[in-house]
Amino acid sequence: DATKISNFLRQVIESDLERGTYANRRWAGSPGDAAHQAAGTPDPAKIRTRFPPEPNGYLHIGHAKSICINFGLARDYEGVCHLRFDDTNPEKEDAEYVSSIKDSVQWLGFDWNNGRETNLYQASDYFDFMYRAAEYLIEAGHAYVDEQTIEQIRINRGDFSKPGVNSPFRARTPAENLQIFREMRAGQHEDGSMVLRAKIDMASPNINMRDPAIYRIRRATHHNTGDAWCIYPMYTYAHPIEDALEQITHSFCTLEFEDQRPFYDWLLQRLIEGGLLSAPPPRQYEFARLNLTYVITSKRKLAQLVYDHKVNGWDDPRMPTIVGLRRRGYTPASLQLFAERIGVTKSDSWIDYATLEGCLREDLELKAHRGMAVLDPVKLVLTNWDAEFGAGHLEPCTQPALPNVPEGTEPPPARHFSMGKEVWIERTDYEEVPPKGYKRLFPGNKVRLKGGYVIECTGANKDADGKVTEVLATVIPGTKSGTSGADSVKAKAAITWVGVADGVQAEVRMYDRLFLDAQPDAGGKDFIESLNPDSLKVVIAIVEPSLAQAQPDDKFQFERHGYFVADRVDHVQGTKPVFNLAVGLKDSWGK
Ligand code: ATP
Ligand code: MG
Ligand code: MG
């Protein structure tokens, strides 16, 4: 399959499948400890991956890459991918985000239900196990309660230039530690007064191995476990355990977690030794996160745009959130194509925004129905129309909805509209004095109204300020598109238009990039300053009747203008058409 470009993650999986690294795993139908897993049967999934969002915001284009990688690889290698809410941080998380994340994953075309299993999990369901595992680490001498202040811990951890200094609490006995840890859990100590730390190596060149904190005291209500806990596991401790309990084989994450991998391996090794987890453990592999020019992919900064009303909500079509991209007119296929095309690498780089736009154009080119819309309308009057055809005559015209129908597929019904004495044309399609090379309307020039007749321009009426109010022309009978006389008169150009009689007013939202700077938040810059003041311009356009009949979310190519989507929130079929510019026909940024 040509779309499956080889990458190092595929190579890792293929080599594990070849060597049978995970061939003897058992699966008991749900996550669980070593005993639970031993009671299972051979795992029907060849590999298990997971997408583990923290439910603290809406997913963005970077997450789409991660979703496509994790769900895509599981699909390609007869595995399964778990959707797991990494909800170990109660202060920032909310059930609202849980449901929007589920929607986004499904909309992208992936499913955690595979008929056999429903692989939807939440890390907070493992709090009991995590607590048990912490008690085990204490008993085995691998963890201790530290009562230094956060500041002391930080200073004593040292840095790259020097080893750390042991905490005065490091030599406590397991019995002492166990007692204090149980007091922590029972709510007998203040928030922030002590932490549980893994006991590893204060001289390790990897700072993350210098006795990382694994539990903290935090009196916070959790959206799932309520007030059951006043101590919460740290992410670096929780994540490997979540992976292991779910029998994940390949744990893919972004490069910033590379330094955490030694702790990931250390922790799982200790818990396997203790009989709490079964071997072989999952392994972590890191890939480069997505950096996209003109785009911000930090949930915190995206939230600032929303709360400061720089955009109209999380699903504003200018937002790089999945809900925003969807409303902008992006399709699941275009985002999957994008994820394939940018590939998976081990070093950070910037992807050009035009790559994303190109994927949408490529997807819509063959699928989006065509239609004519006049975005900056001026009236064209055919002065001989009544004399030639009779007053009030409307000439029925037709055009295909799709010019190139893929072989073996039924073409969609043709579009119907009518031409009359008055039609709307683009203001830029008339020039009194044509610039060099201009082929459209100027006095004496012949032009075809696409799908209709050839006309000859005779001039224009203007208002007192010299602004054109009406373009004037004569129709040349016998030249209608699709009739035998169509080629009898040569026209220099064909222009798009909409009849005054059957055109429908529509609100069209012309979106541009949200930021002017290609790297709006690089190097600590204030990204707010780089906001593009012209990222949204609303125009009142006139569209042909077939476009007014669009359903919300339908995508179109407005001929000559670009790809547009009927807004999924504000568009009302027939009565209140609202379209969003999804992407132009060509990459025109900077021109
Ligand atoms: P943010 O930094 O925007 O808050 P996050 O990394 O904290 O994002 P999580 O909810 O923890 O968000 O992310 C879930 C998964 O998505 C993680 O495995 C993470 O590595 C991945 N991910 C997040 N951002 C990107 C990105 N820009 N490119 C690729 N993967 C990403
Ligand atoms: Mg995170
Ligand atoms: Mg992050």
From TrEMBL:
The catalysed reaction is: tRNA(Gln) + L-glutamine + ATP = L-glutaminyl-tRNA(Gln) + AMP + diphosphate
Ranges of residues in domain Glutamyl/glutaminyl-tRNA synthetase class Ib anti-codon binding: 368-474
Return the annotated region ranges for Disordered.
24-46
Location(s) in or outside the cell: Cytoplasm
Q: Which domain of life is it from?
A: Bacteria
The family database entries (HAMAP family) matched by this protein are listed as: Gln_tRNA_synth
Look up the EC number in the record and give it: 6.1.1.18
Q: Which InterPro entries match?
A: aa-tRNA-synth_I_CS, Gln-tRNA-synth, Gln/Glu-tRNA_Ligase, Gln_tRNA_ligase_bac, Glu/Gln-tRNA-synth, Glu/Gln-tRNA-synth_Ib_cat-dom, Glu/Gln-tRNA-synth_Ib_codon-bd, Glu_tRNA_lig_a-bdl
Q: Which organism is it from?
A: Simplicispira suum
| Residues spanned by motif 'KMSKS' region | 296-300
Q: What class of enzyme is it?
A: ligase
Name of this protein: Glutamine--tRNA ligase
UniProt entry tagged with the keyword Cytoplasm: yes
Positions annotated to bind L-glutamine: 86, 235
Tell me one GO biological process term.
glutaminyl-tRNA aminoacylation
Q: Which family does it belong to?
A: Belongs to the class-I aminoacyl-tRNA synthetase family.
Domain Glutamyl/glutaminyl-tRNA synthetase class Ib catalytic: residue ranges: 46-364
Q: Can you supply one Gene Ontology CC term for this chain's record?
A: cytosol
Q: Which GO terms describe its molecular function?
A: ATP binding; glutamine-tRNA ligase activity
Pfam families reported for this sequence: tRNA-synt_1c (PF00749), tRNA-synt_1c_C (PF03950), tRNA-synt_1c_C2 (PF20974)
